[in-house]
Amino acid sequence: MSTTPNPMGADELAMRVVARSVPGAFFTLLAPDADVARAAAVVSEEISSFGDEAALRVEPKDALAFTRRIQEHASGPVVVSGVDGFTGTEWAHLDLLRSRLAHDGAIVLVMGEQSFARLMRAAPNFASFLGGSLWRWDRSSSILSHEEREARLRALQAWSGRTNDDVVSLAQRGELPRDPEYAEWLVLLDRGDLLER
Question: Looking at the record's lineage, which domain of life comes first (predicted)?
């Protein structure tokens, strides 16, 4: 896994979380220690605004609390922060409990770089869940402008040969292809409510 993650704004990460319909998908966002709580709050707000479910915020005190909160929240997105105090031993404990993290929604970990380095050393099996979904928080990035949103919609139309109305109609009938680009398209149209059909 790369240790030099690319920058990403909260809005772009939220769109990826909402668009990716794979159960148990993990996303990791690294932020400066002083900004972790703020980054988690912003990401949580963005996920809630793009999707049709509010993101649950979790700040577990230890590995057991981490797994317990995930199990209690059977589905929907979860944003986890407050793990920067986890020692290597606590991460190793979470590594042993990783099977308890099965979840129908996406899980977003927001943490500092030192905490991430401890996780990588102490919890290699859990770290494998994170795959390539690792970014560095770009707090200067903001919500897509109207022009950027329209440009992305034009690119999706050119890619698929479909119009916005075609995509909404297909989604309403439950016939929309499962490609993540279509999920992103619905989110850009403020029709994330159709993702569950």
Answer: Bacteria
For 55-91, b/e burial (b = at least 16 CB within 10 A) is bbbbebeebeebbebbeebeebbbbbbbbbebeeebb
The DSSP 8-state label assigned to residue 24 in this structure reads T
Residue 1 placed within a domain:
no
What are the pLDDT digits (tens) for 28-85?
999 999 889 888 988 988 888 777 788 899 999 999 999 999 988 878 899 999 999 9
Phi first, then psi, for residue 182 (nearest 5°) are: -70, -35
Are β-strands 56-58 and 6-8 bridged in parallel, bridged antiparallel, or unpaired?
unpaired
- Distance between CA 104 and CA 174 in Å, rounded? 20
**What pTM does this model have?**
0.73
Would residue 107 be called left, alpha or beta, if left means φ above 0 and alpha means ψ between -120 and 50 degrees?
A: beta
Round to whole Å and give the CA distance between 78 and 60.
12
Rounded average pLDDT over 145-155: 82
d(CA 183, CA 18): 8
116-125 pLDDT tens trace: 999 999 999 9
Which pair of tokens denotes residue 155?
């690119």
Identity at 44, one-letter amino acid code: S
Whether residue 157 sits in one domain with residue 90: no
Dihedral angle of Cα 52, 136, 182, 131, to the nearest 10 degrees: -100
**Number of folded domains that form the chain:** 2
Q: Is residue 82 domain-shared with residue 177, that is, in the same domain?
A: no
